[in-house]
Each structure stands twice: as C-alpha cells, then as structure tokens.
Amino acid sequence: MTSHDELLLKTLKTIQAKLNDTSKDLSEVKVDIRGLKGHVAACIDRVERRLDAKEG
After folding, report:
1. Dist. CA 21–CA 36, nearest whole Å
2. Over the stretch 10-29, which tens digit does the pLDDT of each residue have?
3. DSSP string computed for 7-55
4. How far does Cα 5 stand from its chain's mean position?
5. What per-residue confidence (pLDDT) applies to 22?
6. What span, in angstroms and rounded, lies between the C-alpha atoms of 43 and 48?
7. How many CB atoms lie within 10 A of CB 18?
8. CA–CA distance, 13 with 1 (Å, rounded to integer)
C-alpha cells in the first residue's frame, strides 16, 4: 500500500469514527426532544383545563 493509500485509509477511518459519535449524539438529542414534547403537551393540557375550569 502506498503512503497516499495509507493516509486515505486513516482519514476515512477517522471520518467513520466521527460519524459514529455524531450518530450517537443525534440519538440522544432525539430522545431529549421527545421528552420535551411530552412535557410541553402536559403543560398545555394543564393550562387548557384551568381555562375550562374558569369558564365553567
């Protein structure tokens, strides 16, 4: 293998590792967003119930 090929292989492996890390980070963000969406929905529900109680 030439030094050019070795450098290319090393670079591609580095990119692959960074993509794996990024993928893991995005999965964590996705979980966080799902949790946040649940909290916001619950908050909206509570506010709507309070408004309904005041109107009723």
Report:
1. 23
2. 999 999 999 999 999 999 99
3. HHHHHHHHHHHHHHHHHHHHHHHHHHHHHHHHHHHHHHHHHHHHHHHHH
4. 35
5. 96
6. 9
7. 10
8. 16
Q: Whose CA is closest to 13, among 21, 29, 41, 25?
A: 21
Q: Is the pLDDT score of 1 beyond 80?
A: no
Residue with tokens 């916001």: 40
Structure tokens at 2: 């030439």
- Rounded Cα distance, 45 and 51, in Å: 10
